[in-house]
Structure formats: C-alpha cells, structure tokens
Amino acid sequence: MEYESTIYDELGVPNVVNAAGTKTRIGGSRIRPEAVEAMSRAAEAFVRLSDLQVRAGELISEVTGAEAGYVGSGAAACMTLAAAAAIAGDDLGTMARLPETEGVPNEIVMPRTHRNGYDHAFRAAGARIVDVGNNDNYLGTGSNSTEPWEIADAITEQTVAVGYMQKVYSTPPLDEVVEVAHDHGVPVIVDAAAEVPPRENLSAFVEAGADMVVFSGGKAIRGPQTTGILAGKREYVRSAALQHLDMHVAESVWEPPTELFDKESLDGVPRQGIGRPLKVGKEELVGLIAALEAFLDEDQDALTAEWNARLDIVSAGLEGLRGVTTRREPGGKLMVAPEVYVEVDPEAAALDAVELVGALREENPRIFVGSDDLLDGGFTINPMCLSDDGAEYVVERIRGHLG
Ligand SMILES: *Cc1c(COP(=O)(O)O)cnc(C)c1O
Among 231, 262, 297, which residue terminates a domain? Predict the structure, then answer.
C-alpha cells in the first residue's frame, strides 16, 4: 500500500499509522481543517491575547453553561491553573509565591481511585493531594471504594478543593461529591479531559455543580494539541487568568479586559504567575475556537457510522486469520468511539499479542494499536485517527506478521 509522503518523511522521522486513538504521545488527533486554516490566518496578524481569551471564554461559557471560560495549553495545564486558582484566589502574594505554599491552605482531597498520572498537574501548582477511601470495589461484597463521608471527613481548614477524575465508572457520583464539598465550603475541580463526545458532556459536569471543569482541546474536539479548556466560576477563571497571562506590563497603562478581571479590585499587577510557562499562542487560541465550533456542528451519528464502517474493514480483513478472533466493542461507555478488540491465541498464532504489538511499533511506518489489554492477550483498533487506507494497511501488516 502506497502512502502520500508527509513532512515527517522529509525530516527522516518515521510516520505513525494511528490505530490507537487520540493519544498525545503519537500526536493526539488530526487538527480539523477549519482550525488549521484559522491558525494560519491568526499567524498573519497581531492581537492582544487577553482580548482573545475573552472571546474564547465567551464561547466556552456558552457551550458549557459555566460562568466563565479560559484556554490553557492542555487539559493538564488547566488542572494546574485550576489548582493555582483554588489555592491563591485573588491574593497577589500567594500567586507570586506558588508553588511555595507555606502558611496557606493547599490540600486537594481526591478519592483514591481517581488518582492518576495527570494529578501531578495539581501538585505542580503547589497542591498537596490528600487521597481518601480505598480500592475495595472488587471483593464482591458490594462495598464502595470511596464514600462521600470519607471526603467530608478529610476536608479541613487546609483544604482548597476536591479533585474528581470524571469517567463513566467514577464513584461516588459527581453530584454527591459536589454536595459534600459545597457543604464544607470548598470547590470541586473535575478532570474531564477525554470525556467528549458525547457533546452533552461539555455542560453535564457544570450542571452537576462542579466549580471548575477541564477538557482537552486536542482530543475529540480536534483543536491544537496544545490547548485545553477551563470552564468554571468567574472567581476561579479570574484567578487562573491572573496567574497565566503575561504580566510583564507597565502598570500606568495596563488596561486588562474587564471581562477577565477588574484592575481596580487588585492591589497591583501580579508578577508572572505559576501558569506563565503554560502559555497559549494566538494561533492555538483561534484554532481551538474554530475546532470547538466545528465540533458542535458535527453530525455525531454520521461520524459513528463512519467509524464503524472503518472497523468493518478491519474485522473483515482479519477474518479467518489463524489464532485471531475479533469482536466489536461499542463506543459510548468506557471509550468515546467503537473499537475492534483483537484477541491473539499464543498457542495458535505465530506471535503472541505483546510480540505482535511490539513488532508493529518497530516498523516504518510505525503502527500503534491500543495496548491497554496486552496482559489479557489482546489489543484494540480504534478508528478515530485512522483513514480507510490506514485500516487496510493495519490489516495487511497484522497478516504479514501472523499469516
Ligand atoms: C488526556 C488526559 C489529560 C491531559 O490532557 P492534555 O490536553 O493532553 O493536557 C488529563 N487527564 C486525563 C484523564 C486525560 O485523559
């Protein structure tokens, strides 16, 4: 199968055929053409970034139902901004000291089962994570891993927020966590980085009462990889903006947009904040706006049909291959898209699943398939970042190794 040559060929860097879905380490998603065009036009002219943030914030607020919105350089960056906002509020001194938090409350309470690699983003702002509950979901007793009272019990004078990683399987339910957090006067930060589609989720967690919600701009929204959405209460978005925007300014002529914050209510100009290294360029901001608008217009059913048709190519192509069985996993629950689950019987096939998936990655172009189930002897084919040609190529190469 022939491939159109890419800029990576020119650079001598192996291409990737992406059958794994929107994974950051292999480039996330394909930016929407509308967003690419918008970004290239954005590169031609200048704009005050705070004005552009206001415009993006209006759109985010409109689609999420949150009071305010802001754009960071990824969902993880928005988690850092959210934690910084929860810790510092409007206090310029604390903003200037972060991530040092001596003498100020800095604890984020999280159900233990919500801990994950990305929570380093909270800690990067100076937060200390206090996790509660246990992992007792699997002993067949019906007990829950975390009870709302355990969250309540952990909230003290040192607590600045409750952290919640949103997945369809997350417990306790978000609305119950919001209730205990608000009863104790602390906000809830929701990491919903990968939770769209469905489109309705853009507003669902705000509706459930979350004070700050983050989404990745570079996953299914298909904006630039280096964008994330922060949607939330105005007071937190204000603090996030103050700690993120470039603040190397002359105070005498500093007139920031009042939609973001009121200069008069501040004691002065903040120093460059903890969020300053997480900067977002005008191109990314414009790209995210264009991508989000296109995402809202997308025909979700047609897209799912397209994904399933692409997976049909894979299922049909692997049929009858010795040692291989496939099944379709419908999308919508644990993952946003349907996938083909490929099971490899090591007794019957030439390679086991680990060897096969490893070998596919070593080729040129590299082929990445979903590797979450390797320990069970299987892998997944995700259609989101594949073309139909790509699907055929993946089949051809799997057959090449196992046939
Ligand atoms: C992808 C992801 C992130 C990080 O998103 P970026 O936009 O790449 O920063 C954070 N949390 C979860 C649960 C994710 O899946």
Answer: 297
| CATH code for position 283 | 3.40.640.10
Pocket perturbation via mutation, ligand 1, pick of 79, 165, 191 by most ligand atoms within 8 A of CB: 191
Phi, psi at 5, each rounded to 5°: -75, 150
Pairing of strands 188-191, 212-216: parallel
Q: Which atom of ligand 1 is nearest to the CA of 165?
A: 13
Number of domains in the chain: 2
**Cβ 119 under 6 angstroms from ligand 1:** no
* 313 and 276 assigned to the same domain: no
257 and 343 inside one domain: no
Domain boundary, last residue among 297, 329, 345: 297
Residues 393 and 271 in one domain: no
Q: Is the CB of 72 under 6 A from ligand 1?
A: no
Total length of the chain: 403
Query: Is residue 365 reached through a cis peptide bond, with omega within 30 degrees of 0 on the bond before it?
Result: yes
Per-residue three-class SS string for 263-318: HHHCCCCCCCCCCHHHCCCHHHHHHHHHHHHHHHHCCHHHHHHHHHHHHHHHHHHH
Cβ of 27 closer than 6 Å to ligand 1, yes or no, is no
pLDDT, one tens digit per residue, over 295-315 is 999 998 899 999 999 999 999
pTM, full prediction:
0.92
Q: Two tokens at 123? A: 């800690």
What percent of the residues of the chain are helix, what percent strand, and what percent coil, each to the nearest 5?
45, 15, 40
> Residue 61's domain spans which residues?
33-297
Identify the H or E element spanning 216: strand 212-216
More confident position, 335 or 9: 9
Separation CA 201–CA 336 (nearest Å): 11
